[in-house]
Design brief:
The complex is a heterodimer of chains A (427) and B (212).
Chain A (H helix, E strand, L loop, with lengths): L4 E7 L5 H8 L2 H4 L3 E7 L2 H10 L4 E5 H8 L9 E6 L2 E2 L1 E6 H10 L12 H12 L6 E4 L5 H12 L9 E4 L5 H6 L5 E5 L2 H7 L3 E6 H4 L6 E6 H6 L1 H19 L4 H9 L8 H9 L3 E3 L3 E3 L5 E2 L10 H13 L9 H8 L2 H11 L18 E3 L6 E3 L15 H6 L13 H6 L5
Chain B lengths: L13 E6 L3 H9 L5 E6 L4 H11 L3 E5 L5 H9 L8 E5 L6 H7 L6 E3 L3 H49 L3 H15 L3 H24 L1
Parallel strand pairs in B: 1-2, 1-3, 3-4, 4-5
The chains are: A alpha/beta (427), B alpha/beta (212).
């Protein structure tokens, strides 16, 4: 049976490795899928292409899917996902100049790992006293884990990202240039763009996203909700092929090969050494000075990584509310169910005989070490899910959780008129 | 299209920011705008530099290539309510299937220049701005309607509370509120909100006593 061509969009980042692997190993062919990949240079243009049907699916920032389900921004209520590509994979890097400044003025803040932003707070406060402009940090898109991880890290150290520093959006591939030119002092981005800054001596990686919230969701297979409804079988087959590809990439023995595939000119087009640290997790910089192995820097399949947890969608919503990107009365239950579809994932996983959790939510942050989930079709090994500040996220108490943060958006919301009017709120 | 809908005011020329790495194409767009517009070109500017330029230079419209990496930076502008939204005109390489047209219908603040020739630039920009204003107007209208509806709910609730607590008729409750509104020079909705919060507070205070 031949199926119509499906185009999957992606942006130049190393966690697109499962797509590269599926093409190389003819996994899509095995599932009788006719797949083409299309590279985009901005998240917004890929979102527009998905929303208008120019592409069928996208390797998309998980919060962009949640934002659509929440009716924020263009294409309200139109995207959904039944497959998470990976967990973790981002890092925060600062300029060598800022690192040196922290080291000389606040050496005490560099003693422990994971490294908090308290050193940044000291420098930021000193700058304000001297009447200097605030430090500038960049991330890649307003609705992104990068934005929420960066804000979380700053907030956990008592830095108000709205007042104490300036946040700007810069495309991933421009980050290193902006850091070199001194336009920004630091950024949160996916790979290879942290490794490139470290290798070229321009920046120092202070912390990885796996240390801010261990095993947090990153990219999702975004499709149009309407397409998923009308092409259910194809959707299941597509997810099955991607589970197989992700499981292959996840094997430590395959990571070097995966790095070669994703570094190629038709994927992200960078030298192999720039993506090695991302995919192998070995010899990675953190804390600005240390080099350590972080095997979970990118998780593609283990720990039920591909399962779209409602509690993950709700955490993303909690941060949208916290920072004024969503209204306080957002209907988080309704939105998380529309955004993340564990039922679709389960159907594909069952077909492959892969174990699935029996629940759709878990208390995030309650495991500081590896643990075994027994409430599943077969017991599943999980990695830790702790937050850098030790908080626990109860998906049944989203608003309480938001109110528990001392540092959050001061007003009710900073949404524009159209978003405020169309957001999915409780009656 | 009446000319008054085209530029922000009749006297000031249109301020156009062109963001494009392709200098030749940027020049082509500029050529189409000549006489009646002030044009700023950003060909090697990204991120913070671009944002600073926009906040200092106040363009009326931004023109950019649709797959430009700078789109996410520009997109982040719409996130911030205090920043005035700007119409964004995007040009794409020939798009046979008209997907970008759909994108615009779906609410992406943009218009397409398809098959770029100087003579087509100005009319397309004018249309884009007019359309942007039209949508903005619709949104404002919708907002007003929603706010009116919300106000009516609050007023109804305050009226109900007054009738219940004071044992008065509906007409009298409404008259009381209207008089307060006129005396204090505050909108009826604010008066209604005050009444609700005061009565709620009295209720919570008196609640433990009634239990005893």
């Amino acid at each position: 049976m031949s199926r119509p061509e499906i185009t999957i969009g992606f942006v130049r980042l190393s966690d697109a490795a499962p797509l590269a692997a599926a093409v190389k190993h003819r996994t899509f062919d095995k599932y009788e899928l006719n797949i083409a990949l299309k590279r985009f240079s901005s998240w917004a243009s890929m979102r527009d292409a998905l929303g208008t049907g120019a592409i069928t699916a996208a390797h998309m920032l998980a919060p962009m899917v949640v934002a659509s389900a929440a009716h924020l921004g263009p294409f309200p209520g139109q995207f959904t996902t039944g497959f998470i590509f990976n967990l973790n994979g981002n890092a925060i890097t600062v300029s060598t100049a800022l690192f040196d400044e922290i080291q000389s003025h606040a050496p005490g803040h560099m003693q422990t790992l994971p490294m908090t932003a308290s050193g940044v707070k000291t420098i930021s406060g000193a700058r304000r006293e001297k009447g200097l402009p605030p430090l500038v940090f960049a991330h890649v898109f307003p609705h992104s884990m990068h934005a929420y991880e960066l804000r979380y890290w700053l907030g956990a150290a008592g830095i108000d990202p709205e007042k104490d520093v300036q946040l700007v959006v810069i495309p991933p591939s421009q980050m290193v240039n902006a850091l070199t030119r001194g336009e920004i002092d630091g950024y949160c981005v996916g790979e290879p763009w942290n490794c490139v800054a470290v290798t070229s001596g321009v920046g120092k990686t202070l912390i990885t996203s796996s240390e801010i919230w261990s095993n947090s969701p990153e990219k999702a297979l975004a499709v149009r909700t309407e397409w998923a409804k009308q092409n259910h079988d194809t959707h299941i087959v597509l997810i099955s092929a991607l589970i197989e590809a992700a499981a292959w990439v996840d094997q430590p023995d395959n990571r070097l090969q995966a790095a070669k595939l994703v570094a190629s000119p038709d994927m992200i087009d960078v030298p192999l050494e720039d993506v090695l640290g991302s995919l192998t997790g070995s010899n990675r910089q953190t804390g600005g000075r240390l080099r350590i192995d972080i095997p979970d820097f990118n998780v593609f399949h283990r720990y039920a990584a591909n399962f779209p947890w409602h509690s993950h969608a709700k955490w993303i919503l909690s941060q949208m509310i916290r920072w004024g990107d969503a209204p306080m009365n957002m209907d988080v239950d309704k939105v998380s169910v529309a955004a993340f579809r564990p039922d679709i994932y389960r159907e594909a996983a069952h077909g492959l005989g892969i174990a699935c959790p029996n629940t759709n939510e878990k208390r995030e942050g309650s495991h500081s070490h590896a643990w075994l989930m027994t409430d599943a079709t077969k017991p599943i090994a999980f990695g830790p899910d702790r937050f850098i500040d030790g908080r626990i996220f109860d998906p049944n108490e989203v608003l309480e959780y938001v109110k528990g943060f001392q540092i959050r958006y001061a007003g009710s919301t900073r949404l524009g008129d159209s978003d405020r009017l169309q957001a999915v709120t409780r009656a | 299209m009446p000319p008054s809908t085209v530029s922000p005011s009749d006297e000031a020329p249109l301020r156009v920011l062109i963001i494009d790495e392709d200098l030749e194409r940027a020049k082509l767009v500029k050529e189409g705008l000549l006489d009646d517009a002030v044009v700023q070109m950003a060909t090697q500017m990204h991120g913070r530099g671009l944002l600073d330029l926009i906040s200092n230079w106040h363009p009326d419209v931004i023109i950019m290539e649709c797959n430009s990496p700078d789109r996410d930076t520009i997109e982040s502008l719409r996130q911030v309510a205090q920043t005035n939204p700007k119409p964004i005109v995007m040009f794409v390489e020939k798009d046979g299937r008209g997907f970008m047209q759909d994108a615009i219908e779906a609410g992406v603040s943009a218009y397409v220049i398809d098959g770029l020739t100087p003579s087509r630039v100005r009319p397309l920009i004018d249309t884009a701005i007019a359309r942007f204003k039209h949508i903005d107007g619709l949104k404002a209208e919708l907002r007003q309607t929603k706010e009116d509806l919300a106000a009516r709910k609050v007023i109804e609730r305050a009226k109900g509370l007054l009738m219940e607590r004071q044992g008065i008729k509906e007409a009298e409750a409404f008259r009381t509120m209207r008089d307060m509104s006129q005396r204090q020079g505050k909108p009826l909705k604010d008066i209604a909100e005050n009444i609700i919060s005061v009565l709620d507070m009295l209720e919570t205070r008196s609640a433990p006593e009634t239990k005893e």
